[in-house]
UniProtKB/TrEMBL annotation:
Pfam families: KTI12 (PF08433). InterPro entries: KTI12/PSTK, P-loop_NTPase. This is Chromatin associated protein KTI12. SUPFAM superfamilies: P-loop containing nucleoside triphosphate hydrolases. Keywords: ATP-binding, Nucleotide-binding. Belongs to the KTI12 family. The lineage of its organism: Eukaryota, Fungi, Dikarya, Basidiomycota, Agaricomycotina. The keyword Nucleotide-binding applies. The keyword ATP-binding applies. GO terms for molecular function: ATP binding.
């Protein structure tokens, strides 16, 4: 349903803002006057994933930490869930990766940037328990490497920036999460339905049946043309033929061309314009013959 990405310096108050949003959303869903769907609200953070602060001491250990967060994201994205990603999410490439996952899942998305000054973040960090602290060098490195969200970047938009003194824009967030626009799915990630294993056999045998029925029809042998019934499968269909002589070799040539076009689509992994049942293939072939025989 929705993906909310929270970004900010370490100790900027991201978890506090995530809990504010979670509490507000759950309160709206449980309110007696709420008439819409009652969605599940899930918060994913380093703490919920058991990721230690030491994971950010070097890139080798940070990579699996981000991998764990992304795995949790893909596992929780769904039509009945509002997913809040509570973390620094300080690398724009990682935010883009999450955006792509949300786009593929067709959920609404937004970003909350918790914009606390570095000195204030440092002060808060010093007051934390030791197991919640980063090493001093790691903390400084994270501040330096932070890539601020940008409202002009599609993977950060729509962007809500919240400072220490700001109230959370909870009503605006609710509107974005529940009724905001969804990013269009990239054509590259749309998975085509796979044709059945016997698609080629259906294609060939159905086209052969149509040619056989036509070649034995009096309208074809006499050249009178007109509408000719074709009892293919359990469905009766018709084909409109021109008033001229149509030879078996001409019908077979058109059959080979029709089969070749759709065989190529199959070899390229595409379903094409057929759903590969006998009736649909027959209708498509009949349309093909009418357009080519009547020209």
């Amino acid at each position: 349903m929705a993906l909310v990405t929270i970004s900010g310096y370490p100790a900027s108050g991201k978890t506090y803002r995530a809990e504010q949003l979670r509490t507000y959303l759950e309160g709206r869903f449980s309110a007696p006057d709420h008439e819409g769907p009652r969605l599940k609200v899930v918060v994913v953070s380093d703490d919920s994933l058991g990721v230690n602060r030491s994971a950010y001491d070097d890139s080798r250990s940070e990579k699996p930490a981000r991998g764990a967060a992304f795995t949790a994201l893909t596992r929780n994205l769904g039509k009945d869930t509002i997913l809040i990603m509570d973390g620094m999410n300080y690398i724009k490439g990682f935010r883009y990766q999450m955006h792509c996952a949300g786009r593929e899942a067709q959920v609404r998305m937004c970003t909350i940037y918790v914009a606390s000054p570095p000195d204030e973040c440092r002060k808060r960090h010093e007051e934390k328990d030791d197991d919640k602290k980063y090493k001093p060098a790691t903390f400084d490195n994270l501040l330096m490497r932070f890539e601020e969200p940008n409202s002009m970047a599609r993977w950060d938009s729509p962007l809500f920036t919240v400072s220490d003194t700001d109230e959370m824009p909870l009503e605006a967030l609710w509107t974005t999460i529940m009724t905001g626009a969804k990013a269009p799915t990239n054509v590259a990630v749309v998975q085509n339905a796979k044709p059945p294993a016997d698609a080629l056999q259906i294609l060939e045998s159905t086209a052969t049946t149509v040619v056989s029925l036509l070649s034995s029809s009096p309208a074809v042998t006499s050249g009178t043309g007109g509408r000719v019934p074709l009892p293919v499968s359990s469905v009766r269909m018709e084909i409109n033929l021109p008033a001229r002589s149509i030879t078996l070799s001409e019908l077979q040539r058109h059959k080979r061309q029709f089969v070749a076009v759709h065989r190529k689509a199959l070899s390229q992994g595409a379903q094409g314009s057929l759903d590969w049942i006998e009736e649909t293939v027959a209708r498509k072939f009949v349309d093909y013959l009418e357009s080519h025989l009547n020209t």
